[in-house]
Known about the structure:
By secondary structure, this protein is of the alpha+beta class. It has helices at 85-103, 131-134, 183-193, 233-252, 277-289, 304-310, 334-351, and strands at 3-7, 18-23, 38-40, 48-51, 56-58, 74-76, 112-117, 138-144, 149-154, 156-165, 209-218, 221-230, 259-268, 295-299, 317-319, 322-323, 331-333.
Amino acid sequence: xxxxxxxxxxxxxxxxxxxxxxxxxxxxxxxxxxxxxxxxxxxxxxxxxxxxxxxxxxxxxxxxxxxxxxxxxxxxxxxxxxxxxxxxxxxxxxxxxxxxxxxxxxxxxxxxxxxxxxxxxxxxxxxxxxxxxxxxxxxxxxxxxxxxxxxxxxxxxxxxxxxxxxxxxxxxxxxxxxxxxxxxxxxxxxxxxxxxxxxxxxxxxxxxxxxxxxxxxxxxxxxxxxxxxxxxxxxxxxxxxxxxxxxxxxxxxxxxxxxxxxxxxxxxxxxxxxxxxxxxxxxxxxxxxxxxxxxxxxxxxxxxxxxxxxxxxxxxxxxxxxxxxxxxxxxxxxxxxxxxxxxxxxxxxxxxxxxxxxxxx
Length: 361
Ligand SMILES: [Zn+2]
């Protein structure tokens, strides 16, 4: 279930309704059960021992951002589990914000909404949100990492399915001069023909990729399923063309194949195309007013925010002090969480001075 709440306005201004969201589920890569957190106060460099027996440590060599964490309080698990900082730091920042607003009724703000969502890590939590009923004009997820990070872009995402049909139900000893057409060979040739320079391990930054997820052979049919990721529509079209070219090459080879099908399906879109500039600019302004240098990021994946943005609730992501996600080395930086909290409170006061959006969704 999605947990929602609201904090009534303290200001007489008519201002937009702004929401803050975090996800309650944790990653699947390591256990999130019976987590025993440890607080390492006033980090002074070198190793932080998570578990001596397992020789599990974090230090600036395996966790680069620790180099800037001198004097910070660091929270880790104790080995064998996640910390769950992704996204408990977001939940903590939001709940501390709620407490702060109740303790400071003199702080002028409009109606504030909060929501805690499930199933972010499997990508299905945000789509269950009833955006109209929730009633926010703009939102932010608190699910980011290092100081100043502001994620306003995600990949465009497509899936593809290539089906190769051909008769394999022939005794291989009698295959020559028969109707034998090896659909498995067609599928593996297709995989091989996809461009190596566009593979995930060969791309980073703003370059997208093509990845085959599965090849399933079932009698007279092999099905290849894969994904394409790219930030721009131009790059996406180029990668779609590469997949189509590889498919057509296989089709043109002399296999005696009996059927060839290639289909593409949209999965999600780069949220930048639907984010009003104001939503991102105000977050940057809030950071600057708190002496934090904003760092716009493009997420090499999808986010709850991208799903919500396309459902009509523009939702970029703000840093929340979580690091080494999805691993036993996961940690939270309390000082960065505190900076996240300051950003959010400043942002709330900035929104109070903004006009209510004219176009109703
Ligand atoms: Zn997360």
